[in-house]
Amino acid sequence: MTDIIISHPAHDPAAFDEFGCHVYAASPSTPDKLTPTKRFFRQVSSWNVTMADGKSVPFWGFKDPNVSGSDSPWPSKIIRVNVGDIVHCNMKPSKGTHTIHWHGIEPTPMNDGVGHTSFEVKSEYTYQWQASTAGTYFYHCHKNTVLHFEMGMYGILIVDPKSKTKKLYDPEEGDKLGDATIPARYPAYDAEGIWCFDDVDPRWHLYDHDAGICGEDIGMDRFEPKYFLCSGVPSNKTLTDSRTLVKAKAGSPVLLRIVNASYSELRITFPKDVLVAEEDGRVFRTNPLRGNFSKPFWTRTLNLSTAQRYSVFLDAPAAGRSCDVKTEFLHWCDYNRVQGTVTTRVLGT
Amino acid sequence: MKRRSFLKRGLLSGAVAAGAAVSPLGLRQGFAGDDDVLEDILDDFEGPEIRLDIDDVKLELIDGKRVFMWAFGLHDDAPTIPGPVLRLEQGKTYLFEIRNRSTSRHSFTIPGMVSPDGLAVHVELEGKDDSDNSRKSILVLAKDCGAFLYQDALNAPIGRVMGLHGFCVVEPKENITVGNGNIPYPTSVAPQAVTSLFETLGLEGSVFPGNGWKAKSDREREWIFNSVDPRWCDRFEQGQVVSAGEATDFKPRYFTLNGNSGYDAAHDHDCVPTGTIGQPLILRTANAGLAWHSPHIHGNHVYEFSRRSAKGELRLHDNIREIDTWTMPPGEIAELLLPFKMPPDIPLSKRPPNAQEKFPYSFPMHCHNEISQTSGGGSYPMGLVTDWVITGPYKG
């Protein structure tokens, strides 16, 4: 029908192969190594997670090899550091090669955990970075990410402020007050909820670690989630499970950290306005030293595409009353199709 | 055919196709049969011309598979997907001449742009077999600055997804200086937040040490995301039609950035932002496809300062988010500033030049809806990904 071909230049076969199929793997020493102020250990592990219908689905993740039973929670154990910390995380893949990418954290390429721009970890590597900015992040494997992320290889990462109080961030010199910044009652919080939403297509959970990366069609373009969870809790238990139910003294400030770890668009609806205080690890604030271009805002709905994070503040409801938050999972190609819903709760005490 | 008769045929056929109100310059609306008016306009018009062709093509994908698509190309140049970036100067009027050499009917539309009399830019073109009606011309006024997505909107959004799309960037007539650099919008229309962002660039003691942003330089990149459903390509190749109502049955298997995927995108100068610390760069990102994308950039957060909806409505932000991931719904354009800052989580005492890990620093940008990191049902990361590179320290 047409003889016009839009072609691409021929690849260097070796470089092409290393970009995707056979990524450079190594176990180097950490360059520019410092003495850490926070040290973590992670090892790749696997376990099963129970879904809403009682079925058990295989998952992969990171356990702390020094803590017995640390492979039972999913998502993987939270990593929490303070601004200024020199962070080390020793990672042992134990099964094939893997990496840890510190999503939203910006270290050197060697410590960024991306195979094609650095290396995949063969037997062991100690990642190093220094926490610069308080906020909500997560860490995940960046090898064959489409599969490994779906298989659950991630955990929440929180950078707390230097002050080490229950606070989203420390106000800085020059921060403007009033409407341009977060009200004085809020940077601190009494209760914190960490809601990490995910969807699961059980078909994907039967693959091997390297499935699909060398050109074979295993249907990675088709993702049809059957299960919907929040912070590892299936949708039928999110109103009561301690991992998702946030209890707070009536009227006290509550901080909700919200992460989209699904392959859906999330539409989150709150019963009343909440104050959006942070996105992707950056606080909304107005400060002439940083530029007068950012400020917190009130909203009743939030939309998150994959890997976005928000932190919102609200006041806890009256004792015995609840604030129920609806999260809808919208199909990534058919936005009007709601594939599943999860409801989470803040309960006043 | 001489240029004059080429134009005349296009303009007159536009009148037949549209059959709408008389309009002295909005050529889509036609001339109600008044050839003298047409002649006068052609005689008077001495502005710049942009001549685009539409062709049936085969696009070679990252795994070597070739699929049928449509493509824009500058007249007598090879067609490309996306079409060439068209850079216009604010205030000027351009004569667009569109020639459809495809066997299918198409249109040419620029949502958000207008003709000199303020009407939408839109012409419809028959296939090449109906040569009388396969050529159209239209005057386009570069009234407002910003990024636009020219496209085929005849069977929207199918034509756009099938390859007929490209960036049209309207730049200020003269570089507008704020702080130590330029700003891509006149300060009369830019909200305080946008002006403040560009003013802060390069200010000593600010979070952006280095240079201001430099207009009309290499400090910008255009990224168009698209996705390919080979079933649709096959149907069009066989002469069938995919209707707009079938958009909900879109099942993409290939994902591109400026027509490239994976390795190709990461090795293409036009895709890869490159520079030293302190050389901020504007990213203009558009989603021509139907999947919702979630681009995530490593190494630096970016600052989103504008959105243009699929309908062409521009919103310059009065609250600028510093983000590492942004949402790209189908048809939308987002403009972001990539500051080229020193990655902030490198330990303070181990930054170049006193470091073992040397420049260049390469970081990826990829869609975090990781399904789009694949091609043909596997082959991670041969989908919507590219790299950006910090080549060295700030050089002043």
Number of strand elements of chain A: 22
Could you report the average pLDDT of chain A, rounded to the nearest whole number?
A: 95
Q: Beta fraction of the residues of chain B?
A: 25-35%
SSE order of chain A, one letter for each helix or strand:
EHEEEEEEEEEHEEEEEEEEEEEE
Q: Structural class of the helices, strands and pairings of chain B?
A: mainly beta
The best one-word shape of chain A is: globular
What is the CA–CA distance across the termini of chain A? 71 Å
- Major sheet of chain B: size, sense and barrel closure? 6 strands, mixed
Low-pLDDT stretches of chain A are none
C-alpha end-to-end distance of chain B: 54 Å
For the CA atoms, what is the radius of gyration of chain A?
21 Å
**Any idea what the shape of chain B is?**
globular
Which two chains share the most extensive interface? A-B, 84 and 91 residues
Strand order of the largest sheet of chain B: 13-12-15-19-17-18
User: DSSP helix count of chain A?
Assistant: 2
Proportion of beta-strand residues of chain A? 35-45%
Element pattern of chain B in H and E: HHEEEEEEEEHEEEHEHEHEEEEEEEE
Report helical residue fraction of chain A: under 10%
Whole-number mean pLDDT of chain B:
90
Report on the architecture of this protein.
The complex is a heterodimer of chains A (349) and B (396). By secondary structure, chain A is mostly beta strands. In chain A, 4% of the residues lie in helices and 41% in strands. Chain A has helices spanning 13-19, 145-150; strands at residues 5-6, 25-26, 38-50, 56-63, 76-82, 86-92, 101-103, 120-121, 125-130, 135-140, 154-160, 191-200, 227-230, 233-234, 246-248, 253-260, 265-279, 282-283, 297-304, 309-315, 322-330, 338-348. In chain A, the strands form 4 sheets. In chain A, strands 12, 13, 14, 15, 16, 17, 18, 19, 20, 21 and 22 form an 11-stranded mixed sheet that branches. Chain A has a 4-stranded mixed sheet with strand order 4-3-6-9, with no helix packed on it. A 4-stranded mixed sheet of chain A has the order 5-11-10-7. In chain B, helix 1 (3-18) crosses helix 2. Chain B is globular. Chain B has helices at residues 3-18, 35-44, 158-161, 192-200, 230-237, 262-266; strands at 49-60, 66-74, 86-89, 93-100, 106-114, 120-125, 135-141, 146-151, 165-171, 176-178, 181-183, 220-228, 254-257, 274-275, 281-287, 295-297, 302-308, 314-323, 333-338, 361-367, 385-390. In chain B, strand 5 and strand 6 (120-125) form a beta hairpin. The longest helix of chain B is centred in the first third of the chain and has 16 residues, at 3-18. Chain B is mainly beta. The chains are: A mainly beta (349), B mainly beta (396). Chains A and B meet through strand 1, helix 1, strand 7, strand 9 and helix 2 of A and strand 1, strand 2, helix 4, helix 6 and strand 18 of B. Strand 1 (5-6) of chain A pairs parallel with strand 1 (49-60) of chain B.
